[in-house]
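Appendix B. Chain record.
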Amino acid sequence: MKKQFNLKIVLLSLISMTALYSCSDLELEATDSVIQDVSFTGVADSQESLNGLYGETWGMLGDQANFFALNEVTTDEQVIPTRGSDWGDNGLWRSLHNHTWKVDHGFLLSTWNQLNSKVLKASQIIDPLSNSSQQQVAEAKFLRAFSMFFVLDMWGQNPFREATDDPVATPVVLSPSEAYAYILNDLNEAIGGLPNTGPSMETNGASKAAANFLKAKLILNSERYTGSAPNYQEVINAVNAVEASGFALQDGYFKLFEPTVNTETVLFGNIGIGNRIWNGMHYNMVTPNQGGGWNGFSTLAEFYDLFEGDANENYVGSGQEERRGWVPDASNANNTDNYGMGYGFLVGQQYSGTGQALTDRAGNPLVYSRDFSLTNSNETQAIRVIKYHPFNGTNEDSFRAHETIFRYADAHLMRAEAMLRAGNAGEALAEVNELRVLRDATPLGSLSLDDMIDERGRELYVEFFRRNDLIRFGQFTKDWEFKDPAAVGDANKNLFPIPLTALLSNPNLVQNPGY
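Structure tokens predicted for this chain:
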């Protein structure tokens, strides 16, 4: 049995004692507190460990900080203005949007630790010593690939240790191309052992479709990781495999985010969606079970302007496409099913469920405006976003544990993008227009890469892939409102800095350029 001394000071003391009393026959008994068995012998219960891994993954995705903030607040989709004393937090949120984050930003270390710890836990389930079933191994490989993908995408290097490695040994660090190959291999092996789950309430776990979706995402971004152009046909093949499992586009955009079966939800998590509902709503927007929002998360007017419709209002009949949503007006706000709240992008006067015009805390009309200050906004400024909705009849007080992670419309647009980049612009245009017609948007006459990234923004806003998309299209470093001028065009921002504690604990890691 392998033994490990884990208190160096005790060892030094023993060495000193041996030197002083060389005639002593000093032996350590197995009961001594400094001796621990550190050999890995397998997880005690594979299914319990797998359930815990799912739970930790869902918890990470449901948070409004850390993982979500790094992937959304760093983009043009989400911004949290400081409103008086609210949401200041020593610039924690502002620095993400304006790209002035530092190596000591708290969300970086938290997310790094969350992702890498799940990689190790997945490896423990996968290890033969755990005697996991074929499906349990496949599910763990999918979850490992999921976490490793985001470590690669956000930091460009992956620390890795096998379950049986000495826990005090320094983890190896996979290069981007090595990590890419490892993730792709995990997904290919997982697909064989995963269930072929189609649209149902059973899509809250790994499946062949979910693994093929992530495979398409990985390959489409592969040039960043390998330096070689993606195999676009493989992206198309992976999306075709998702479609073959029964998934397809579906109309009724905002119904896709209700806890019901639809043909688009490839993977959802048992995740409370309170953060997605309330983090941008005003304090006076209430439901019977929720005493108001948190008045933080907002969006830029320039992102809102990507959608069809009158730029100055978003009421019913403003000529808007379905995905932009709508705000009730005085004539139709009396809708207790929806508590008077609109869908999508909220701008202008807001109403209660009984049709009364709402006010802010000072008694002024609650009118969300397009313009705001990043550092000194009042409580009514900036357009808000609500994609999930506390509609009547749901278990709204517990925020419905059902958040979409992978959606078929994303896969559909990945296939269109692969077609476009491969030179098949006509097929790509047909794919995009199929989606646009379904969403009550005017079909496009032609399709460019700029059109494609805008279409992805319109369809997939606040679904935590905006950062990844902008980088792939070379637009993460573009200028947008409130971005620090020094950060515009700085390609170093495409990766986050390695947290300092990680660098100190693993000399195999190398700090990313620019930090």
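Further analysis of this model is presented in Appendix C.
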